[in-house]
Amino acid sequence: MTTEQLYQIYLKHPVISTDTRKITPGSLFFALKGDKFDANSFAGQAIAAGAAYAIIDNAAYRLGEQYILVDDVLTALQDLARHHRRQLTISVIGLTGTNGKTTTKELISAVLSQHFNAYATQGNLNNHIGVPLTILSINSAHEAAVIEMGANHQKEIGLLCTISQPTHGLITNVGKAHLEGFGGVEGVKKGKGELYDYMKATNGITFVNSDSTDLMAMQYARSLKNVVMYGSIDLENLVSGQLTENSPYLSLQWTNNQTGESYDVRSQLTGAYNLDNILAAICIGVYFKLKPEQINAGISGYQPKNNRSQITQTATNTLICDYYNANPSSMFVAIENLGKLTAKRKVLVLGDMFEMGQESAAEHAAVIRKALDTEVDEVIFIGGEFGSQKAKAGSRKPDTVKFYVTVEQAIAALRDEPIKESTVLIKGSRGMALERLVELF
Fold it and tell me: How far apart are CA 27 and CA 166, in angstroms?
């Protein structure tokens, strides 16, 4: 079956599912292969649950006309998304980066939604499967889209750009993450820079943080033409802004440098590092000619979720829950932010960082040094990687620096000696499952 033929079926059945547990009547089921399963074997179950068609790539499971046989289901899904994207005439903002992708995507969506019917990547559907599903969720009623693209190897962002075909591009930052897959920081820059490569090839609009020497060097190296800048001071920025408060929520003043007018806005975000993410959303709002009050409404109305810089008040503590993911770059800025906050007592709870490859020992040791050099009252390290670098803690008092190999050990210790009346940052890689600690605070 050709992509065009499949597209005609999609137009009649525009809801896509890859999970038989989430089948809706009349949807299309794409039988994607996983590491431990072959979804072709679930095609019959999908049809029985109400799917109009099941797209499969194993003829043995073709049991009737409702079973559409293709050479490769994943390729068929990606080609279908590309074809659908070509039919859309809306602005599509593609964004990637080491840190802040999801928060920035949500902020941009919150701002644009004040004026447009904007669609944005749902949850974390930002990979080679999630991006096609996101594109295929856009319909004729939508006026703009914000597509998040993630990667842990080179050439992935390039692939996702061919599917999402962004008209506008943004890299939040480049830093130390997925070093094992990218092959070091320079590999990260090359991989994320594939978005800039696409913007150059298509003559698209690129939003660049002028405060980032890395991003500025990357855009200069490519001689990008249509660059719109934002940042802290530079008058060449379309938008400039500075923090006015961080206690723990961020307030800022931003200026539209085209008009010279300045505006104040209070957000529901914590972490000084989120200033860049907020300014990116404001810049895009100004570029798309939203009114200042619309932009501020989008910024102030956005509530962080999914444990990304999310503040939780308990009976005795203020928790900064930031354990969706972690890498050296995000660890450093989160630790710095806690050090700058005004609080009666400050505690760091840090879990291992994953996918560090050969750099793991050095990077965990660097985070230990950073934490111990920061003005906090107590530091708790959790995980074998941090534990292997325990010697880096030096001669600090044992009651202020603690190491636990597992989360279970930390839970037992915190039950015996609970932390109270403190502002606590909880941060670590998703695989550490640090959410198990929250009830102890």
Answer: 27
Return the number of other C-beta atoms located less than 10 Å from residue 386's C-beta.
Answer: 25
CA pair distance 99, 106, nearest whole angstrom: 13
SS (H, E, C) 361-399: HHHHHHHHHHHHCCCCCEEEEECHHHHCCHHHHCCCCCC
Query: Do 149 and 104 contact (CB within 8 A), yes or no?
Result: no
Interacting residues of 288 by C-beta distance below 8 A, sequence separation 6+:
91, 112, 115, 116, 144
Q: Is 271 helix (H, G, I), strand (E, B) or coil?
A: coil
- What is the CATH number that goes with domain 310-440? 3.90.190.20
CATH 3.40.1390.10 fits 3-72, yes or no: yes
What is the dotted CATH code of the domain comprising 88-301?
3.40.1190.10
Q: Measuring CA to CA, how many Å separate 153 from each of 156, 159, 182, 245, 355?
A: 6, 11, 5, 37, 11
Indicate the pLDDT class of residue 395, thresholds 50, 70 and 90: low
Residue 117 CA neighbour count, 13 Å, CB half: 7
Q: What is the DSSP string of 71-87?
A: S-HHHHHHHHHHHHHHH
The H or E element containing residue 246 is strand 239-246
| Cα–Cα dist 59/392, whole Å | 58
Q: Which residues does 192 contact at the CB level (< 8 Å), separation at least 6?
A: 96, 97, 98, 151, 157, 171, 174
Task: Give percent above pLDDT 70 in the chain.
Answer: 97
Pair 85, 164: CB distance under 8 Å: yes
Position 249 scores a pLDDT of 92
Quick one: tokens of 23? 């089948």
3-class DSSP state of 124: coil
What is the identity of the amino acid at 49? A
Number of H helices, E strands in the chain: 16, 19
Q: Looking at 58-67, 186-195, 224-233, which range is the least confident one?
A: 186-195
Q: What is the DSSP string of 17-31?
A: ES-GGG--TT-EEE-
Contact 266, 297 (CB under 8 A): no
- Residue 64 phi/psi, 5-degree rounding, is 170, -170
Q: Alpha-carbon distance 29 to 106, whole Å? A: 28
SS3 of 160-184: the string is: HHHHHCCCEEEECCCCCCCHHHHCC
DSSP 288: T
Residues of the chain with CATH 3.90.190.20: 310-440
